[in-house]
Structures are given as structure tokens and as C-alpha cells.
Inverse folding.
């Protein structure tokens, strides 16, 4: 049903990916936005490519992107593209192959399509999430599991405590973490840090399409295209493991 949208988004992500790889090899300027977040010329160039390709193909859709000025106009649109031109700018600038171009399509507030492209490793993760999405599976409530966490949280010792035999691996981009878990190369994505919708929308679509449970860190479903596009942390896993971790969070918070 969204095959053309997936095709256009995938090609746009590839095009942006080629450009950000080229720009890093040739050298580029970067600085900080308000709030001290890093931004580079490559972020802005990738944003331009994605905006031009997607809005020209689907002019009636709304638009929400980290590198574009947000307006209330998107709130009246049924379909909204939610885009992070480079998720993991720090890793991109430092040469860690853990950044991603993240393109999500949200329909009536729910993730309908996701494209997460890692140009450094030439990985393309793309899926259409049906409505309703597959029922969350309940395959591994116990035993050892691998949680993918943020590099910053790992470095600062702020990884949430996890129950049972948990192993953790630090991965830069949260969009890339979600794509890896959707592919089965990890079991959990968890963070207590607030995230922006553009960090999460594409990866959430990938995970929902695989039947994983996707909520904020309090266990509530994530509604997208909100006036304030903020997500209260993130917990993604198979249903049994998700319930086990969420129950643990609630018990230690008492």
C-alpha cells in the first residue's frame, strides 16, 4: 500500500547517504546549535536532499525534521514525514560507523513506514508497518539478553538498571539501535533520556513491523506528530522481555 513511498524514501536516503560520506571524506565545517547539539554542513545538505525528494513526490504530506523550522501546519495533515538527516552527528564527525539517516512516515499519529540507512556500513533497513501492526510476540521473558544503549549514557554511567542476565552494548545512533533490534542483532533498546520524534519514528516503524513492543519508558504507546514532538524515553523489546523490564522499572521506582 505504501510501496511507492518506501521506494522514494529509500532512494532519497541513499542519495543523502552518498553525499554525507563524500562530505566527510573531503572535509566539512560544523558547529553547535542552541542547547549545544552538534550540527554540520552534512546535516543541512542531507536535510535539503530529503526534503526536496520527499515533498516533491508527496506535496500534500506534512513535514517534521530536526534541521527544518517546525510549524503547526503539520498538525492538520493525516500523513507526516518525520526525518532526522543524520542521527548520531557526533559519531559521524568522529568517524564511528554508528550514525544513520532516519526517514519515517507517520499516518494518523502512528508509524507506518521506516527507512534507516547507515551510509558508513552501507546498511539499509526499510519496512512498511501494516495497520494494525503484527501482535507483539512473547518469545523470551527470561534468560540472557542484549540491550543496545547510547554511547553517552554508557560513558556517563547512566544506563538504566536492567533485570536478570542483561548485557549492554553502546551504539551511537538511536535510530540505528532500533534498526539493529528489528533485525535481531540485539534484544532491547532502552533509554531514560527524552528523545525527539525524528530520532524514533523510522526505527519504531521497523520494530513494530517485526512484532516488537514499542513504548516510552513508562510503558505508554508513543503518539507521533504531537505539538511538542518529544518522546519520554524508550523501551523496545519482544513482549515478554518488555513486560519484564517494565515491571522491574516500576518496582525500583516505588
Amino acid at each position: 500500500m505504501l510501496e511507492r513511498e518506501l521506494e522514494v524514501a529509500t532512494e532519497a536516503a541513499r542519495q543523502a547517504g552518498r553525499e554525507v560520506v563524500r562530505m566527510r571524506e573531503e572535509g566539512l565545517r560544523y558547529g553547535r546549535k542552541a542547547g549545544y547539539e552538534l550540527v554540520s554542513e552534512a546535516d543541512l545538505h542531507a536535510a535539503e536532499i530529503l526534503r526536496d525528494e520527499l515533498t516533491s513526490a508527496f506535496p500534500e504530506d506534512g513535514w517534521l525534521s530536526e534541521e527544518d523550522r517546525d510549524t503547526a501546519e503539520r498538525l492538520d495533515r493525516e500523513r507526516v514525514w518525520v526525518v532526522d538527516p543524520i542521527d548520531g552527528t557526533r559519531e559521524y564527525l568522529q568517524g564511528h560507523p554508528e550514525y544513520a539517516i532516519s526517514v519515517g512516515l507517520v499516518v494518523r499519529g502512528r508509524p507506518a513506514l521506516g527507512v534507516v540507512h547507515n551510509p558508513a556500513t552501507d546498511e539499509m533497513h526499510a519496512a512498511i508497518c501494516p495497520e494494525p501492526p503484527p501482535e507483539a510476540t512473547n518469545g523470551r521473558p527470561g534468560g540472557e539478553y542484549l540491550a543496545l544503549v547510547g554511547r553517552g549514557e554508557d560513558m556517563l554511567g547512566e544506563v538504566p538498571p536492567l533485570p536478570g542476565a542483561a548485557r549492554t552494548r553502546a551504539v551511537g545512533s538511536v535510530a540505528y539501535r532500533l534498526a539493529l533490534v528489528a533485525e535481531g542483532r540485539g534484544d532491547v533498546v532502552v533509554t531514560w533520556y527524552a528523545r525527539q520524534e525524528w530520532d524514533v519514528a523510522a526505527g519504531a516503524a521497523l520494530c513494530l513491523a517485526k512484532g516488537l513492543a514499542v513504548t516510552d519508558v513508562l510503558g505508554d504507546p508513543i503518539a507521533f506528530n504531537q505539538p511538542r514532538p518529544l518522546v519520554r524515553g524508550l523501551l523496545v523489546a519482544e513482549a515478554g522481555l518488555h513486560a519484564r523490564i517494565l515491571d522491574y522499572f516500576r518496582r525500583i521506582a516505588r
